[in-house]
């Protein structure tokens, strides 16, 4: 198709097109802003109303409770936060790991049943695990103790001789010291 318009007219048409595009864009943005304002206005009014209600409730509460001292209350909050941070900071960061429990379960011989496993870290250098349970007979209990003693994860395994008094259905109490 042959273009019969001279260059000057083409430039003038291009300018008119850009001008119309800007006018339409400005008009659309104006309409969108007006619609958005209409949709946001009720929420804004509701928020202002809620704020005024809350403010009036606070004034009524303060008028009914003059004995409450804000500074005293803030000091109590600070003291409580200090106590809580002290308690949290004293928490020991060393816990019994799943590896220790898995080793105990894997080394458990036939006839050994655990009823309680307790963890104690009063001394950070000596972490102990107390195992309470029942053994079918002396041989099963002895085999379990020997298996735990041979494991390098345990520094010592303390099984009192009094646990071997009964020949069968032995209630035992074993103390393991972790490395």
Report on this model:
The protein is of the alpha+beta class and 179 residues long. Helices cover 56% and strands 22% of the residues. The protein contains 4 helices and 4 strands, in the order αααββαββ. It has a 4-stranded antiparallel beta sheet with strand order 1-2-4-3. A hairpin with a 2-residue loop joins β1 and β2. The protein is elongated, with a radius of gyration of 40 Å. The mean pLDDT is 88.
- Poorly predicted ranges: none
Largest sheet: 4 strands, antiparallel
Radius of gyration, in Å, reads 40 Å
Distance between the termini: 91 Å
Provide the succession of SSEs. Answer: HHHEEHEE
Mean pLDDT: 88
Spatially, the strands of the biggest sheet line up as: 1-2-4-3
- Number of beta-strand segments: 4
| Structural class category | alpha+beta
Instruction: Provide a count of the helices.
Output: 4
**Strand-residue fraction?**
15-25%
Which outline best applies?
elongated
Helix content: 55-70%
Short description:
This protein is α+β, with helices and mostly antiparallel strands.
What distinguishing features does this structure have?
elongated, 179 residues, alpha+beta, 22% strand
What order do the helices and strands come in, and which of them pair?
Layout: H1 7-64, H2 70-89, H3 98-107, E1 112-123, E2 126-137, H4 138-150, E3 154-158, E4 168-178
């Amino acid at each position: 198709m042959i273009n019969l318009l001279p260059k000057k007219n083409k430039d003038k048409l291009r300018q008119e097109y850009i001008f119309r595009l800007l006018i339409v864009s400005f008009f659309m943005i104006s309409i969108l802003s007006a619609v958005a304002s209409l949709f946001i206005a009720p929420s804004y009014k509701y928020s202002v109303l809620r704020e005024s209600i809350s403010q009036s409730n606070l004034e009524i509460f303060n008028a009914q409770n003059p004995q409450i001292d804000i500074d005293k209350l803030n000091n109590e909050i600070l003291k409580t936060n200090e106590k809580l941070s002290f308690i949290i900071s004293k928490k020991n960061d060393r816990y019994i790991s799943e590896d220790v429990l898995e080793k105990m379960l894997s080394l458990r011989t036939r006839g050994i049943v655990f009823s309680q496993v307790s963890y104690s870290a009063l001394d950070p250098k000596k972490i102990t695990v107390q195992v309470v349970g029942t053994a079918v007979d002396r041989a099963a209990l002895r085999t379990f103790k020997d298996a735990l003693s041979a494991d390098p994860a345990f520094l010592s395994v303390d099984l009192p001789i009094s646990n071997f008094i009964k020949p069968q259905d032995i209630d035992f109490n074993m103390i393991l010291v972790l490395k």
